Amino acid sequence: MHSSVLTLEEAILRFGRKNRNGRRVVFTNGCFDLLHPGHIRSLEQARELGDALVIGLNSDASVRQLKGEGRPVIAERERAEILAALESVDAVVIFDDLTPREVISRLLPDVLVKGGDWPGDQIVGREEVEAAGGRVVSVPVVPGYSTTAILQKIREGTRGSRAES
Fold this sequence. Notes:
With 165 residues, the chain is α/β, with parallel strands linked by helices.
């Protein structure tokens, strides 16, 4: 299936509960500002939990609020295009809120995936997904990679093949 950048309404038409035809839809979200191997591995793990992976992508405005001035480095349309091009990703939905709660509660994925650095009781959308019969899965964070660390290395002008966290 060709992956693409969709509005929430388009994503619901393609991946909503009524249109799944038995496919298990997995959802995860994030800023994905500078894509690194940690992102790729966690997205591949998420995709293995179902038949289609939908990513909720923080808009530029929400990234700025979460990460501060100077972020994101890559604009939302470009981040979305990069993610949509990945083999493991079926669709990307950009959202403006600080959390993906609205996207999750309207899409109601079968599996909601977050990195293991998020305490289970703080995973946004957990209640909605579990109430609809879905499950929440924590995937381990890949050590040694972080966008913040990569940006720090760039600012400091240090060289290195891997970003240290």
